[in-house]
Amino acid sequence: MAEVSISKGKYIKISPQKVRLVADLIREKDAGEAVTILKFSKKKKAAEIIYKVLNSAIANAQVKFPNLDVDNLYISKIFADAAPMMKRFRAVPRGRGVRILKRYSHITIYLSEREEK
């Protein structure tokens, strides 16, 4: 079935690699189960950010389809892409500078409705 709702978090100050570790835990899971996994995840910062984006996706689905059963929603797609990085320089010996990349992420969550069996 087609996606019921989409939610995006853009320019979030966390590296995409850290977000992907948590996103892999909840991919293809029911929305309620994913919320529970995120609450008890050890990767607190990434889990908190994904939790907010997931709640936004659930709210978007409820607004778009008022008579939709939220218990049938599941995460059909979730991904974390790299956003533009802030570039900084740090002084190192011999008068040189080393580039420091402050990484940002774009998080996208697609929710779909499970087919009744």
Task: Tell me roughly what share of residues is in helical segments.
Answer: 25-40%
CATH class call = Alpha Beta
Largest pleated sheet: 3 strands, antiparallel
CATH superfamily: Ribosomal protein L22/L17
Which residues form runs of ≥5 with pLDDT under 50?
none
**Pattern of helices and strands:** EHHHEEEE
Structural class designation: alpha+beta
Straight-line N-to-C gap: 14 Å
Q: Please identify, by name, the CATH architecture.
A: Alpha-Beta Complex
The residue-averaged pLDDT reads 94
Q: Rg, please?
A: 18 Å
Q: Going across the major beta sheet, what is the strand order?
A: 1-5-2
Count of separate structural domains: 1
Number of helices: 3
How would you sum up the global shape? elongated
Strand content: 35-45%
User: Within the CATH hierarchy, at the fold level, what is the topology?
Assistant: Ribosomal Protein L22, Chain A
Task: Please provide the count of β strands.
Answer: 5
Please tell me about this protein's structure.
The protein is α+β, with helices and mostly antiparallel strands and 117 residues long. The chain has a single domain (3-113), classed as Ribosomal protein L22/L17 (Ribosomal Protein L22, Chain A), CATH 3.90.470.10. The protein has helices spanning 16-26, 31-39, 44-64; strands at 3-12, 73-82, 86-92, 96-102, 105-113.
